[in-house]
């Protein structure tokens, strides 16, 4: 019996090729773009994408024309990221960083229109913010969320911002598109996300990107502290340490095959 994984004309191979195309794209793709890259019949692409959408492996963007990873595909990616082999190495880097800085450190990943905490190393200070692994936080008022937004392709960013609920969490929350876009421009230049008591009053936070080999952000590394212990300026002095740890984490999670 022929192994379907090696039959390039099989439905299985075509389905996996579409998933790979969507997963590896820097932004949502149209069926036409899938056709150009994979040279599959349009009817086949439409049929397979519809099936993958029904099964939640793909989902359509707001405009209904572009496909991006669906819930089940994202869950697979998160499952790989959470694999015990990677988690042990990753947490060791996170714990060392937390002990070095003396504050809580977090790894977050994009999850739809939010960020999800994937791992964290807690500080031993009695006064600390406790947001457990798995917690989802907004994009517009967190250091990781704003960093993720700032590094998006412009067209995709414009579509996403238009759909976000810029809910006011504190007095410092950016609640207008204009103010958020201005902040994102500054973050984009420095590639450092900041949260100056915008999500939780009394908490400051900075975040740096974790890139894969293609220089795409797939996660963020952040530290947060009570503003009574550190100002935003003071916590920002730890950015070089975060950037070094971010590099180490990228090598663990997405190593060079060579």
What does this structure look like?
The protein is built from ten helices and nine strands. With 258 residues, the protein is an alpha+beta fold. It is globular, with a radius of gyration of 20 Å. The longest helix is centred in the middle third of the chain and has 18 residues. 45% of the residues lie in helices and 20% in strands. The relative contact order is 0.11. It folds into two domains: 67 residues, Winged helix-like DNA-binding domain superfamily/Winged helix DNA-binding domain (Arc Repressor Mutant, subunit A, Orthogonal Bundle), CATH 1.10.10.10; 172 residues, 2-Layer Sandwich (Beta-Lactamase), CATH 3.30.450. The N terminus is likely disordered. α1 crosses α3. The strands form two sheets. The protein has a six-stranded antiparallel sheet, with helices on both faces. β7 and β8 form a beta hairpin. This is IclR family transcriptional regulator. It holds the Pfam family IclR_C. It comes from SAR324 cluster bacterium. Keywords: DNA-binding, Transcription, Transcription regulation.
The low-confidence parts are 1-6
Summed up, the helix count is 10
- Total strands: 9
Output the helix-strand order: HEHHEEHHEEEHHHEEEHH
In round numbers, the mean pLDDT is 87
Distance, first to last CA: 34 Å
Largest sheet: 6 strands, antiparallel
CATH-scheme architecture of the largest domain? 2-Layer Sandwich
Level of helix content? 40-55%
- What fraction strand? 15-25%
Q: Which CATH class of the largest domain applies here?
A: Alpha Beta
């Amino acid at each position: 019996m022929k192994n379907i994984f090696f039959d390039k004309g099989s439905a299985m191979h075509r389905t996996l090729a579409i998933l790979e195309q969507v997963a590896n794209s820097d932004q949502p793709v149209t069926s036409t773009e899938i056709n150009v890259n994979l040279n599959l019949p349009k009817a086949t692409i439409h049929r397979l994408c519809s099936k993958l959408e029904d099964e939640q492996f793909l989902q359509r963007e707001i405009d209904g024309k572009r496909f991006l990873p669906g819930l089940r595909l994202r869950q697979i990616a998160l499952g790989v990221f959470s694999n015990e082999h990677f988690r042990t190495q990753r947490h060791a880097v996170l714990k060392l960083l937390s002990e070095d800085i003396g504050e809580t450190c977090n790894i977050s990943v994009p999850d739809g229109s939010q960020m999800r905490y994937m791992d964290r190393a807690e500080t031993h200070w009695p006064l600390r913010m406790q947001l457990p692994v798995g917690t989802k936080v907004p994009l517009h008022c967190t250091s990781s969320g704003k960093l993720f937004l700032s590094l998006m392709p412009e067209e995709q960013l414009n579509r996403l911002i238009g759909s976000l609920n810029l809910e006011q969490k504190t007095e410092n929350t950016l609640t207008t598109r204009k103010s958020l876009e201005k902040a994102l421009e500054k973050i984009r230049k420095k590639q450092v996300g900041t949260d100056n008591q915008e999500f939780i009053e009394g908490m400051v936070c900075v975040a740096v990107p974790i890139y894969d080999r293609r220089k795409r952000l797939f996660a963020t590394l952040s530290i947060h502290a009570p503003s009574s212990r550190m100002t935003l300026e003071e916590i920002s002095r730890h950015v070089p340490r975060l950037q070094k740890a971010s590099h180490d984490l990228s090598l663990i999670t997405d190593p060079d095959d060579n």
